[in-house]
Amino acid sequence: MSRASAIENALAYFDDGGYLAELGPRIAIPTESQNPERLAVLRDYLEQEMIPAFEAMGHDCQVFENPAEGGGPVLLACRIEDSAFPTVLGYGHGDVVRGQEGNWKNDRDPWTIEQDGDRVYGRGTADNKGQHILNMAAMRHVIETRGSLGFNSKFMIEMGEENGSAGLEQIVSENKEAFSADVFIASDGPRISPDTPTIFLGARGAKNFDLVVDLREGGHHSGNWGGLLANPGIILAQALATIVGPTGELLVKDLLPPPISNSVREALKGIAIDVGENGPEIDPEWGAPGLTPAERVYAWNIFEILTMTTGNPANPVNAVPPKARAHCQYRFVAGSKRDEALDILRRHLDENGFEQVRIEPPPPGNAIDFKATRTELDHPWAIWVRDAIERTKGTPPALLPSLGGSICNDIFTDILGLPSIWIPHSYGACSQHAPNEHILLSEFRDAISVMTGVYWDLGEDGTPS
Amino acid sequence: MSRQAAIERIDTYMEGGGFLDDLSRRVAIHTESQEDTQIGELHRYLDEEMQPYLEDMGFSCEKFENSIEGGGPFLIATRHEADDLPTVLSYGHGDVVRGYDDQWHEGLSPWTITKEGNRWYGRGTADNKGQHTINLSALKAVLEERGKLGFNVKVLLETGEERGSPGLREFCQAQSEKLKADVLVASDGPRLSPDRPTIFMGSRGVFNFTMRVDLREGGHHSGNWGGLLANPGVILTHAISSIVSPKGEVLVDGLRPPGPIPNSVRAAITNLKIDGGEGAPEIDPDWGEPGFTAGEKVFGWNTFEILAYTTGTPGKPVNAVPPSAEATCHIRFVPPTDSHGFIPCLREHLDANGFSMVELTASRECMNATRLDPDHPWAKWVVASIEKTSGRKVDVLPNLGGSLPNDAFSEILALPTIWVPHSYAACSQHAPNEHILEGVSHDALQVMTGLWWDMGDGNTPQ
């Protein structure tokens, strides 16, 4: 009975095909949470796969119905060994984005896993089924090797993350005792590169909204009216140009975060962004001036134009268009003024003569509004997890203050008051949210050793009190 | 047999539903020249509708294929009465912009005329089927009343105006003998004000082009990549913002007229009252060239417009840095601006401002800017005829704000060009809910009947 044999057992399970054998049937359940017709399927995932698996691992399962209309249920699986042990809250989401059938290379079916060399394709392999299934398997090998966990496990699986985690906040708020723990450790998102184990301690927030210039009904012939009627496309372009500079610098001072702290700067020093095979080329001149690429994405704020339309782009006509709309996004790190962001923007537009530009809610299909959260880099649990991974790998993992993307981390940090430690298993070019989503077997093999080591150590002495 | 009787004849035609019938048949033909699949409809308009109609009036017709691939056909219809009579060339276009069938107000269809009060809705009612139908119906009334016209007429119908009149210039060049005339009198575009007749003698030019920023293939997650990947939508808004001010002032010298508005033009346009009529959009007084009157802005100066802009996937937005952005833009310009300078000048401007990644592509077709002196004898003659019929003062514009292929007539055929527009500014031309006003159309039928009557009365300019 040892740490090394637990990891060996987990690797043997992985190498013998045990992992893919568990993954396949779970990918096959098309748990598209953005598709209202799949509501029943979301429950199937919990009832047919998760509950039996957790019960086999000695967890008691409780299903919370979602108070949000159309939202899927939430599972909480608990294995309480001893009230004196530390309690770890785990998390995963069993829902996926739409399958986008027909758009995958080689006619691949998103609901059937397919191995091609080091890659395993399938919807949810990276985000997030593959990640929580791996963590469950790692935990199971600790139980099997040690005979017990040596800590208390609470593991929640939600079914609505890709739809903005509707209802989750309410469920957790109303059941704080059930979800209470000492630390939150879960997996989602990408490592900074496939062979660099990574920890991130929070996530950038994101707020989508529309900027609209709506001047009149209908287009008007640009010959008869050009020069007489204000062009909403021109006004919106000019307004946007005052918000974000020509090289992507966010120009509205009040929307910027406080200066990057020395500890964050230090943590990000030497972290290179690895775009992976087929990843996009980074534009070194883009974004906030004077920052490294890692600082720009993990420690700074950005304003994006996600979509913009004026006139009739598919069939342009010679008319002054009546309105213009830009669907925009503010991504921001912890410490930014998220709640006041739209008021700040309103004031900025007014001060620059753009009273005509309205700020409107985003379309319901893309209405994300995430808080930014961060656990401090020197938090005892952050240091403890870093050391646990170093014990397995021999070198410390990359430690990021924040994920570039956004996740409902505030439920764990703000509502449950937990330090949040994320250990991602995917990589940047995994085509998450797009056709051809896949994982790398070599990376996931590494991840199962990392997670088995972390879960093993959670049952040893020396965890933060 | 009198001028008045001819006008009464056209009144009867209008009031008896003749105009509605003629126009309804023509609107029903889906002559969308911007859709390649509708080429058959362009032929049908000429073969089944216009040619039989004109032959019935004693015209001999000849149809010509377009020398430009994909361009619609032309029709030349000639009624020659005597060699010593004046010859008028008239022009119309049988094609229309896209129907946008599902964007019209409830109960309206682009291909059927629907009457609502004074408004007649339908695609092409204003641009241009309604206008050439008015002119030909007036011609017919004169012919029926007088038994002859008293002048020679050549009618040129094209079917590609809404695509930028591909092949029209080549056609006029090649057929200059067949199209030879003393004056062009034709109708398109709006009156300055619905209740006063307007003439114009040229038009602003129009130059369409796209500005495109294409940075990479596919979108990338804005959380993982936001701040690392240049956003083409952001770049393009800045490129545009360097060309035109937040108030619509053109900022690049080479896109502005090379000199101030000439005095004779300024005298004609400075105090013109622009009244779009009921339903017209409200003019934004602070928009456009600072210090200019409305007339100067639209008839005397150049404008830059974004016609369409797109980045990302607006119908299905995702949280991704979009890969590309594109704006369709155009410049309306007055003489003597040289449109050949636009792209080189924009290229230089964009490069100098750090926007070398913005690709510029000019549309193949461009309409040149043309003007005729408001004191030209034919202009004065037409004004006198119209004032005799309507009893109202005529608004005289050296050029229209919109664009017409007028250079084909004024430069290639070397004709004095007089346009008598029958529409009004708020007609939703080029948009859903295109319509004409019954009252204005009736007035136009009278004005044109009087004008054609006078043309055959022996007192035309030499």
Describe the structure.
The complex is a heterodimer of chains A (465) and B (462). Chain A has 465 residues and is α+β, with helices and mostly antiparallel strands. Chain A is globular, with a radius of gyration of 24 Å. In chain A, helix 1 (3-15) packs across helix 4 (129-146) and helix 1 runs antiparallel to helix 14. The longest helix of chain A is centred in the first third of the chain and has 18 residues, at 39-56. In chain A, a hairpin with a 2-residue loop joins strand 4 and strand 5. Chain A is built from 14 helices and 20 strands. Chain B is α/β, with parallel strands linked by helices and 462 residues long. Chain B is globular and about 80 Å long. Chains A and B meet through strand 11, helix 7, helix 8, helix 10 and strand 12 of A and strand 11, helix 6, helix 7, helix 9 and strand 12 of B. Strand 12 (302-310) of chain A pairs antiparallel with strand 12 (303-311) of chain B.
What gross morphology of chain B would you assign? Answer: globular
Chain-averaged pLDDT of chain B: 94
**Rg of chain A:** 24 Å
- What can be said about the biggest beta sheet of chain B? 6 strands, mixed
Q: What portion of residues of chain A is helical?
A: 25-40%
**Total strands of chain A:** 20
Count of β-strands of chain B:
19
Structural class of chain B: alpha/beta
What integer value in Å does the Rg of chain B equal? 23 Å
**Helical segment count of chain A:** 14
Tally of helical runs of chain B:
13
Major sheet strand order of chain A: 1-2-6-3-7-19
Q: Structural class from helices and strands of chain A?
A: alpha+beta
Main sheet attributes: strand count, strand direction, barrel closure of chain A: 6 strands, mixed
- Low-confidence runs of at least 5 consecutive residues of chain A: none
Q: What share of residues are in beta strands of chain A?
A: 15-25%
* Oligomeric state, counting identical vs distinct chains: heterodimer
Distance, first to last CA of chain B = 26 Å
